[in-house]
Design goal:
Length: 308
């Protein structure tokens, strides 16, 4: 009889529906809050994770990871509350080489229901450049079907860069629409100050290839390293469509050509099982595969069809 493989499980999901998802707008690095539907999706995610853990005798996630964008934090907060947990949030910054030396976070409370949640810009959504804040049907009309889908889904497709001088003008002189510029990503230099001090190259537009490059050091040097060092059974990672696609491309070794056909639905948890012996992927599966299939198809059609 073959011995059972001991695995480390990453519960990974795209955040719940945000206000801009609902409006069919390219969100990128804009901070958009969850809708009520998004909060309900997060609560349902907690139910699915708890049911899976109870059924398979797996510990609930021992640590959490999110991007620096508010929609992932709100999703994490709802999930943890539904699981009877609380998060101690901490921003992880620094160059990729620094991440190898980041210690496992200490909890500032004796409450056993508190777990660490590390936040990083490396899990942020892809930066959609000048497309951020624009309605998808309008961009589709301007660029045409082929170019629209190439930039949205091809591994090397990349939107036009945004003018960060205009993007950030409201930091010192916020006049809103009076400036003639639609603000899309407020207060970058304040929010990501630590990263800029450390000379991180924060983007003004990104391809998926560039998202993979900035995500991978965090995945390897924080998520997987902590999993090994702490002998964890599971963790919870809440990110975005592009950062989840990047994780899948890396761990599942998806080709550059094939990744364009991968779409990530909002708020449906995916389990990535890694062999603890070598931390290679054993299998991946959604906890609600039927809903994942239906909603991934809807993601593919964004811009072509009006959101329900």
């Amino acid at each position: 009889m073959t011995a059972a493989i001991e695995t480390f499980k990453i519960f990974v999901l795209r955040h719940g529906q945000s206000e801009l998802n609902h409006e069919n707008i390219f969100c990128g690095w804009i901070d958009a809050h969850l809708t009520q539907k998004g909060k309900d999706q997060a609560s349902n995610t907690a139910d699915l994770i708890k049911s899976y853990c109870d059924t398979h005798n797996v510990k609930l996630p021992e640590i959490g990871y999110t991007s620096r964008l508010v929609r992932t934090r709100e999703t994490m907060e709802v999930i943890l509350e539904s699981l009877g947990k609380k998060g101690q949030f901490e921003v992880v910054s620094g160059l990729s080489t620094d991440l190898q030396n980041v210690p496992y976070p200490k909890i500032d409370s004796d409450d056993t229901d508190v777990i660490p949640v590390l936040q990083t810009w490396r899990l942020n959504e892809r930066h959609y450049g000048s497309w951020q804040g624009q309605r998808k049907p309008n961009i589709l009309k301007k660029y045409g079907d082929e170019q629209y889908m190439y930039i949205r889904r091809d591994y090397n497709g990349k939107p036009p860069r945004v003018d960060l001088n205009l993007e950030m003008i409201q930091e010192s002189n916020d006049k809103g629409a009076l400036t003639g510029y639609e603000f899309k990503e407020p207060n970058r230099h304040q929010k990501y100050h630590d990263e800029e001090v450390r000379n991180e190259q924060l983007p003004a537009s990104e391809s998926l290839a560039e998202v993979v490059k900035r995500m991978k050091p965090f995945l390897e040097n924080i998520v997987l390293r902590f999993g090994k060092e702490q002998n964890q059974e599971s963790c919870l990672l809440v990110a975005h469509g592009s950062s989840v696609r990047s994780i899948l491309k890396d761990l599942e070794n998806i080709s550059d050509a094939a990744i364009k056909d991968v779409d990530i639905p909002n708020g449906i948890p995916l389990v990535l099982e890694l062999n603890k012996a070598d931390f290679k992927l054993v299998r991946s599966f959604y906890l609600d595969p039927e809903s994942a299939k239906i909603n991934a198809a809807k993601v593919r059609k964004e811009g072509f069809e009006k959101n329900p």
